[in-house]
């Protein structure tokens, strides 16, 4: 089969590799009908996530048709159309039983490696480095889905791939970020990063009743899409984010701040430039400009919610501001499975059509070009969907 | 999940539960071993000299402002560390120590004590029953090739060693409390003299069971001893911890996660 493989910084290729096989009785093989490039894939593409190996198959946002089942998977049948959450879950550990699916104890085969980096291991993820298990991802024609009796969800008839594909990651991720803000009816929610996750965070914050949602970015196409969704926008290129937010909230600051940017933040302030220099010199791993600004802008006793990915160490954290203002931090990889029933219902009821975020469609063979286009935000590129078969 | 482990060559101290009935309702018995820290193997005077010499070398290195200077600085820094911690990697590799006179009893010097605990989301009785059938142990103990149960108390263990070798021993259960404790000891003539116990204690709330394994073993002298040392590497507690993780995953999921055999591109 064809698969998108990682070979180093800014080097992804489409290779012919063997088809995946059932390796455990709880596995399924899924023939992929739609697969996406996620903003977090760009962290791999830019070489920011450690423990990647040359030849790793990328991709963690995908769906398709079940073509083969292990003997222990009894809730699916060959031919079922399924979406597959990017977090791999066992369904029986302490965390899975509490709906904390991304913290699953048991699905990362490289648990000792994760423990060294993070203190404890978290769930295995598809196509996202050996720190999260080194599982082959879904930017391919076929994928092996472990613990397929737990993760995948059948797609009701009549819903197109475009409407449900983002349930595998970015829609629940944006939704969890908003839910973590415990939004009250008169709240202002500020969202850094109006990429795909930011767009779903905007829609989710409005669905959850925020009075005002503010989107901050530097890419005009993203700000346009955010404005269409109903957000007030701030272009960080030519506006002072703090001043504008204080103006929009009459000096209070946003009740909640969401960092949808993560470890590769850009900015025009001293800390952002220092981050850039230090990461280039390997003296730091993550650039956290957006997070620092969110902490600084957040109103007293407000919430900072972090769906953006961090992978290592961050310095110059304004812990003084966070502590003195009594902020609450909520973060984590998305507990995708927890949100699927609710969000699927919202799609069926027509409350949201997630396909609004798609700007580009390609064949799998075009992946190297698509990565380049997405990372450089060329041609209005916000979300890429590929059809491998 | 907690882990307490030590392999610092402390005196051979069998598990306190071996041979005695544990008191009920202990909850979380405290482990006596301190956290792992490199053993002191450099004498006091030598440590002071190390620090002084290291500081001088580091300063010279800094002033040279060249690649050689950088190397000198690095060497100086490691001498300072050697003096400060009293641990020398080279001495360790050579098996040499200027820190303390050799133990009078090699038995004491070479005893290795490992203690690891893991929380498993399954009832105590289920975990106990699986473990008590010793033939199950190779399913999660990576180095154990086979355990043959010979009678109610006794079993024969075959453990993989490097270079295709094996080490073997007969073991005997010396204490057993249903659903709580199994303690065992190797019998005379064992390749590796060892004793151990596994305890099953209810975890707080509905977290399942805390499984605590304590293992003491004496690597034999000579070449076989070297194999055993290689077998457990530098950190026997890691091996035991990984065994316990496999046990947890086997019991909780039925099928531990694997990726061997999945496709990938050119490496």
Plain-language structure description:
The complex is a heterodimer of chains A (389) and B (267). Chain A has 389 residues and is of the alpha/beta class. Chain A folds into two domains: 222 residues, Quinone Oxidoreductase, Chain A, domain 1 (Alpha-Beta Complex); 161 residues, Rossmann fold, CATH 3.40.50.720. Helix content of chain A is 28%, strand content 20%. Chain A contains twelve helices and 18 strands. In chain A, strands 3, 5, 6, 9, 10, 17 and 18 form a seven-stranded mixed β-sheet that branches. In chain A, strands 13-12-11-14-15-16 form a six-stranded parallel β-sheet, sandwiched between helices. In chain A, a hairpin with a 5-residue loop joins strand 1 and strand 2. The N and C termini of chain A lie close together (10 Å). The mean pLDDT of chain A is 95. Chain B folds into two domains: 51 residues, no CATH class; 148 residues, START domain (Alpha-D-Glucose-1,6-Bisphosphate, Chain A, domain 4, 2-Layer Sandwich), CATH 3.30.530.20. Chain B is elongated and about 70 Å long. The two termini of chain B are 35 Å apart. In chain B, helix 1 packs antiparallel against helix 2. Classes of the chains: A alpha/beta (389), B alpha+beta (267). Chains A and B meet through strand 1 and strand 4 of A and helix 7 of B.
């Amino acid at each position: 089969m064809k698969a998108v493989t990682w070979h180093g910084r800014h080097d992804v290729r489409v290779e012919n590799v063997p088809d995946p096989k059932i390796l455990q009785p709880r596995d399924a093989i899924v023939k992929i009908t739609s697969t996406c490039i996620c903003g977090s894939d760009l962290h791999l593409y830019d070489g920011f996530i450690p423990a990647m190996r040359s030849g790793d198959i990328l991709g963690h946002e995908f769906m398709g048709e079940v073509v083969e089942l292990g003997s222990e998977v009894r809730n699916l049948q060959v031919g079922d159309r399924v979406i597959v959450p990017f977090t791999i879950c066992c369904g029986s550990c302490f965390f899975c039983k509490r709906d904390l699916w991304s913290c699953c104890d048991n699905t990362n085969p490289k648990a000792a490696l994760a423990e060294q980096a993070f203190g404890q291991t978290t769930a295995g993820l598809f196509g996202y480095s050996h720190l999260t298990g080194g599982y082959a991802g879904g930017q391919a024609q076929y994928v092996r889905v472990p613990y397929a009796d737990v993760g995948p969800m059948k797609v009701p008839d009549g819903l197109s791939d475009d409407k449900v594909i983002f349930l595998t990651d970015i829609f629940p991720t944006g939704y969890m970020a908003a839910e973590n803000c415990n939004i009250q009816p008169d709240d202002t929610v500020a969202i850094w990063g109006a990429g795909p996750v930011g767009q779903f965070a905007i829609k989710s914050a409005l669905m959850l009743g925020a009075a005002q949602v503010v989107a901050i970015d530097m890419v005009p196409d993203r700000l346009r899409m955010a404005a269409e969704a109903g957000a007030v926008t701030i272009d960080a290129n030519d506006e002072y984010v703090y001043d504008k937010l204080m103006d929009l909230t009459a000096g209070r600051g946003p009740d909640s701040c969401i960092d949808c940017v993560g470890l590769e933040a850009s900015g025009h302030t001293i800390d952002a430039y220092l981050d850039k220099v230090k990461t280039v010199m390997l003296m730091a791993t993550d650039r956290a400009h957006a997070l620092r600004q969110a902490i600084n802008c957040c109103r007293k006793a407000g919430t900072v919610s972090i769906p953006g990915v961090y992978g290592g160490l961050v310095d110059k954290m304004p812990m003084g501001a966070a502590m003195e203002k009594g902020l609450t931090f909520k973060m984590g990889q998305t507990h995708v499975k927890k949100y699927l029933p609710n969000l699927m219902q919202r799609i069926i009821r027509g409350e949201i059509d997630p396909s609004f975020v798609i700007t580009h469609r390609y064949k799998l063979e075009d992946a190297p070009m698509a990565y380049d286009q997405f990372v450089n935000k060329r041609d209005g590129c916000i979300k890429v969907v590929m059809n491998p078969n | 999940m907690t882990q307490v482990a030590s392999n610092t060559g402390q005196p051979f101290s069998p598990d306190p539960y071996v041979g005695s009935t544990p008191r009920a309702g202990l909850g979380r018995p405290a482990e006596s071993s301190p956290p792992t820290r490199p053993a002191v193997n450099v004498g006091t005077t030598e440590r002071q000299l190390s620090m002084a010499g290291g500081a001088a070398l580091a300063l010279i290195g800094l002033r040279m402002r060249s690649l050689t200077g950088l190397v000198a600085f690095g060497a100086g820094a490691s001498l300072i560390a050697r003096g400060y911690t009293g641990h020398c990697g080279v001495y360790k590799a050579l098996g040499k120590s200027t820190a303390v006179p050799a133990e009078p009893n090699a038995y004491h010097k070479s005893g290795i004590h490992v203690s690891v605990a893991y929380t498993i989301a399954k009832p105590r009785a289920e975990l106990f029953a699986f473990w008590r059938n010793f033939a199950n142990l190779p399913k999660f103990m990576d180095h154990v090739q086979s355990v043959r149960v010979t009678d109610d108390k006794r079993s024969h263990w075959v453990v993989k060693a490097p270079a295709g070798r094996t080490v073997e021993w007969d073991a005997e259960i010396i204490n057993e409390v249903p659903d709580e404790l199994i303690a065992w000891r190797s019998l005379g003539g064992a390749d590796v003299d060892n004793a151990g116990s596994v305890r099953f204690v209810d975890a707080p709330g509905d977290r399942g069971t805390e499984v605590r394994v304590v293992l003491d073993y004496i690597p034999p002298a000579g070449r076989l001893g070297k194999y055993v040392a290689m077998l457990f590497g530098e950190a026997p507690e890691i091996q035991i911890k990984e065994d316990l993780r496999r046990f947890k995953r086997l019991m909780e999921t039925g099928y531990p996660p694997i990726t061997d055999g999945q496709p990938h591109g050119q490496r």
